[in-house]
Amino acid sequence: METLKETKTARNRVTSKKRKKFMQDTLAGYLFIAPMLIMATVLTIIPILVSGGVSFTDWNFISGLNNINFIGFDNYTKMASDENFLRSLANNFALMFVIPVSLFISLTLAVLINKATYFKSFFKVIYFMPFISSFVAVAVLWRVLFHPTSGPINGFLMSIGISNPPAWLADPSYSLLSVAIIMVWAGIGFEMIIFMAGLQNIPTDLYEAADIDGASKIRQFFKITIPLLSPTTFFLLITGIVGSFKVFDLIMILTSGGPAGSTSVIVFYLYEVAFIQLKSGYASAIGIVLLLLILVITFVQWIGQKKWVNY
Amino acid sequence: MFMKWMKSSAIVLTAGAMLLAGCSSTGTTKTVTKGSDAEPVTIKVNTWYNLENENFDLVKQEFEKTYPNIKVEFVSSGDNNAAEQVKKVDLAAASGEEMDVIMFSQPSFYVQRVALGMLEPLDDYLNKEGLKFEDEYVVNTQVNGKYYGLPGKSVNFFVAINEDHLKEAGLPVPTDWTWDEYLDYANKMTKLDGEKKRYGTYFHSWTYPYAMVAMGNQPENAYLVTDDYKSANITNPIMRKSLEVRLQAEKDKSATPYTEVISQKLNYRPQYFNQDVSMILTGTFFIPEVGGTDKVPATFKTVFTPYPKVNKEDTITTPVNSDYLTMYSKSKHKEEAYTFIRWFTTEGLMVQGRNIPSWKKANMEEVLDKIIAATANPEMIDKESVLNFLKNSFMIPAINPPAYSAEVEKMMQEEFDLLMLKGQDIDTTMNTAQEKIQKLIDSNK
Amino acid sequence: MNSLRVSRIIITLLMGVAGIMFVMPFLWMLSASFKPELDVMAYPINWIPTTWNAVQNYTEVWAGALPFSLYYWNTIKVTLLTTVFSLIISAMAAYGFSKISFKGRDALFILILATFMIPSQAILVPQFIMYRWLGLFDSHAGLVLLGASGVIGTFLLRQFFMSIHNEIIESARMDGANHWTIFVRITLPLVQSALATVIILRFIWTWNDYQNPLIFLRSDHLFTLQLGMTKFSDVNGEFYSLMMAGAVSAILPLLIIFIIGQKHVIEGVASGSVKG
């Protein structure tokens, strides 16, 4: 009898301890995330909700709040047949491929700098320079490189026998590719330092142990580096793809969406609709569609993470 | 150690943030007192110019001397970016901010906002003063039968030519010429070999007027949309001529190649002053520049010639546009705002001495003298040819474009790009543009 | 051993050659800042200026019509505050989202993550109106809060936190430690490389931010560098020589932050091996 009573009490004690821990955890959890959550809600989530509401109207923001007409899903149906929108969407989908390419390059560079070069710190700074250089300078540099008649790229192409090289930024068929190349180049610095942070976090004894076991550097790369880097890679993949859908400044400076709308992307079109055509309702609808699209893509990646990301 | 430092800095930080919020300057909360003769009223004038460079301090001084009971506060981010200024004006209106006078750089910005009720009609104020608009101003700012703004600086278009290149090619200064003669001049002044390459002419990337050069100075229907806003105005012989001129210049290699203009995002100022080109079709905003500034000195003399014509028998014409001085419909100081608008568009611009007013009663020569004298190398401006082109060109006040003109121009620009860069033929270009623009017009009726 | 050394040298050389392209924008900035305005856009590019205008350009930038040093100070102030504030709340949130289990945790994380999936242009108008309403418009405090609400730092730190094995945390809790102590004493030291990275990134993003100051600041005396530099222009275009002199002057702190920050990224290694 006594033992039974004791166990019961003991169990109760354990359960109440668990409950206490649960409550402590919940409280602690909310406290920890509170500052970020509050700021994100006030500064971003509420505007998104407002924007969502506006997307069902034909509002233009100048005329004030007395002029809002509810028009249901009209803005959304309009989008489905809007040539400009569809073209921008297609361009964004094409630009998504920039990310895997640049991730591959930056990972290679990060690993090389980490292990296989002299003057490590010097190289880190060099490859990082585009990230902190003035946008104007980056634009000028690439315009010069892509100069249709006297630029080095076409000069090289002509010297190896291609007689009519494309006009790159001024060629409606090649302008998107030119922008993609510049995006890859510009993204490398950012991705590289994130990869390097991730690389530093892999304990060196793992590599030492592998060396002792006789594994080659390449095998180590695939069996140790890549798996342990996966949380970082996942982060970069998500932020990269989202970033590619949000690209705006680069387009603004380089091409303003041209020539002939070949580099028009969704955010640029949204900007035109919102601030030049002054159609806030339609612009909000575009913003919401973009948000949903990115959410879906991210969700797909999130589910996929179980397959290849090791924590 | 790092952690301890972080903890204490968190405390400091929160305190700092609170302090910041407390003493954050909300610069624009000037208490606005209702204007009585004793207390001065402050009006806000919203613009995009760099205030010091453009002599707005002089403007303020003179105005306040003449009207001591009105104080002027200029609101400008000073970056000369009219597109950003318009965005900020829109945001200010949306959030209920106080504004009195708003300047707009382009007719499309103006017309759009009239349609949205942002601007106050000025007819009553004009009538009270007994003024007839057509007697006062060169440019017509009427929209739907009312005047919602007064015109500021006037912009006419003309051709500026590097005199040295002209003399080198043995050509006389043109005083009356056609597009074919223009192309001929461009050919003769182009030098493609030798140390320094130069093209005869340069066409900038703006849709208006460069994608429609021959249309720009037409007496009627000078825009991509007919004057009555009913139909698209692309499939006509004048537009065809415009596109032919552009294609011809590309073929002759007498103009800076369009691929270069686009891919390098060229600007007309360095092109002209670096002597990479001999002549450019440009506007009167370029005149102060032509005399040199300390940043960009003028090393050669420029002569001014009128806008080319299509046929020899046509009269010499030039389109006249302006920027706009308008009154915010929710301004709390409408009388004072009107006083400033009226003063600035008449005497204010003359005092400012940077641009030509749209005021018919302005003394053109006095204005020009002032502008020229303020340049670094006044002898580089050929004053005689300026006066000539101003006197001999018949000024055609531009009709205000429809509110959706930005979209119209974008459609035209896209077809134009395909014409110049992808070899799309003229007929397809004109027909596609006509179709698209017509659809847009119809959807806006 | 010898072949390893040779391959290292070869790779170093190749990286060096490729690296030149990465430094070119900066070299152009430098070169442009030394030239008179007309030479800046001259083509082909003259890397070494034929006419030296360096003294005039830099004097005009630092001692000319614009209060450049004020803009510099404003930028330092806003950037430092944003970075510190952002780091603290991001780290806290990252810990909460990864190491504490509570109801609705993952859903809230996705909610937060979603905020960076919408382009700022789409929510600009509501944000602007809200800012005016909250009284945060035209203030540095407003800018700091806006900058610190970026969630990428949280996301990155969460990834790193998640790689920390839970046993360490469990054992600390057994010993009676509360979450704050664990957070500060145990987990933070383990993610130093990520912390240093977040500091570097947030600093650079805030320093180079043009959009937010453009929209949310009105008074000239509050302007930051990126905004102030656009004033080196007139009606006929920008003065690139001055803008680049300004940009070169503005890039120095970024280089310094990066170089210092990188050292911390490396130092994170030693303590990183306390794993499982």
Give the secondary structure arrangement, pairings included:
The complex is a heterotrimer of chains A (311), B (445) and C (276).
Chain A lengths: L1 H53 L19 H7 L2 H13 L2 H19 L3 H13 L2 H11 L6 H8 L15 H26 L3 H9 L4 H29 L3 H6 L11 H11 L3 H29 L3
Helix pairs in contact in A: 1-13, 4-8, 4-10, 5-8, 8-10, 10-13, 12-13
Chain B lengths: L1 H21 L18 E6 L9 H11 L3 E6 L6 H13 L6 E4 L2 H9 L7 H6 L4 H4 L5 E2 L2 E2 L1 E14 H6 L10 H11 L9 E4 L34 H16 L5 H6 L4 H6 L3 E7 L3 H4 L11 E4 L11 E11 L6 H19 L11 H10 L9 H10 L1 E4 L7 H18 L3 H18 L2
Parallel strand pairs in B: 1-2, 1-3, 7-8, 10-11
Antiparallel strand pairs in B: 3-10, 4-5, 6-8, 6-9, 6-10
Chain C lengths: L1 H32 L3 H4 L13 H10 L4 H32 L5 H10 L5 H15 L5 H9 L3 H11 L3 H9 L4 H12 L1 H16 L3 H6 L8 H5 L3 E2 L2 E2 L1 H33 L4
Antiparallel strand pairs in C: 1-2
Please characterize this protein's 3D structure:
The complex is a heterotrimer of chains A (311), B (445) and C (276). Chain A has 311 residues and is an all-alpha fold. Chain A folds into two domains: 2-54; 96-264, MetI-like fold (Orthogonal Bundle), CATH 1.10.3720.10. Helices cover 75% and strands 0% of the residues of chain A. Chain A has helices at residues 2-54, 74-80, 83-95, 98-116, 120-132, 135-145, 152-159, 175-200, 204-212, 217-245, 249-254, 266-276, 280-308. In chain A, α1 packs antiparallel against α13, α8 packs across α10 and α10 packs antiparallel against α13. Chain A is flat, with a radius of gyration of 26 Å. By secondary structure, chain B is an alpha/beta fold. Chain B folds into two domains: 41-154 and 321-373, Periplasmic binding protein-like II (D-Maltodextrin-Binding Protein, domain 2); 156-320 and 384-443, Periplasmic binding protein-like II (D-Maltodextrin-Binding Protein, domain 2). The radius of gyration of chain B is 25 Å and the shape is globular. Chain B starts with a helix and ends with a helix. In chain B, 48% of the residues are buried. Chain C has a single domain (67-272), classed as MetI-like fold (Orthogonal Bundle), CATH 1.10.3720. A two-stranded antiparallel sheet of chain C has the order 1-2. The chains are: A mainly alpha (311), B alpha/beta (445), C mainly alpha (276). Chains in contact: A-B, A-C, B-C. At the B-C interface, α1, α3 and α11 of B face α2, α4, α6, α7 and α10 of C.
